[in-house]
Design goal:
Blueprint (H helix, E strand, L loop, with lengths): L2 H11 L3 E5 L5 H13 L15 E5 L10 H4 L1 E5 L6 E5 H7 L3 H10 L6 H4 L3 E3 L7 H4 L2 E5 L14 H6 L14
Parallel strand pairs: 1-2, 1-6, 2-5
Antiparallel strand pairs: 3-4
Helix pairs in contact: 2-5
Length: 178
């Protein structure tokens, strides 16, 4: 086997480590992107019964953004297995208890029909902030692009950018704000 083909084959079968920043991202749209890497859907050797997916590290899961009023309307069901053990938890309450669970459940539900999703989820590493253990960060070789660009906060603009921003209206000098 030629050296080039050997490297190409190694790259095809290797498990790559990806990192994804979940700040200001919709977890349900992000889950579709993360699923592609966790299951290995982008690899030429993909087969539903072949476990060829990669590892994905998700940072800043505490800063996810649900669309509209999903924080107060989305409900998560849990059952303990005992009689009367059913409970429904609102998204904001679940996120307050554990900031990684909403994204984790979104990724898990996006892989519906995958017979190996329990094992696939073991390759998903979610962190509520940007503090990732160094042992994991040494493995990262790819960054997954965010779906939406993260907006800039007002305090992040420089004084020069604020002055150069075009004005919609110039108020007269004798105008009084109430």
């Amino acid at each position: 086997m030629a050296a080039l083909k050997r490297v190409q084959q190694w790259a095809t079968f290797a498990r790559v480590w990806h990192i994804f920043d979940a700040s200001w991202q919709n977890p349900f749209e992000s889950a579709q992107v993360l699923k592609k890497y966790l299951m290995g859907l982008y690899k030429p050797i993909y087969h539903p019964m072949n476990e060829c997916g990669d590892h994905v590290i998700v940072i800043n899961s505490a800063d996810i953004a649900l669309p509209g009023d999903e924080w107060v309307k989305r409900v998560y069901f849990h059952h303990t297995g005992y009689p009367g053990g059913a409970s429904w938890t609102l998204a904001w309450d679940l996120h307050k208890k554990d900031p990684t669970l909403v994204l984790k459940k979104a990724v898990y539900n996006s892989m519906d029909g995958n017979l190996q999703r329990r094992y696939t989820m073991e390759r998903l590493h979610i962190f509520p902030d940007s503090k990732v253990p160094g042992a994991l960060m040494k493995n990262v070789s790819n960054q997954i692009r965010q779906i939406r660009p993260m907006p800039k906060r007002l305090d992040e603009y420089t004084e020069k950018e604020v002055k150069e921003f075009p004005k919609i209206i110039d108020l007269p000098k004798d105008y009084i704000l109430r």
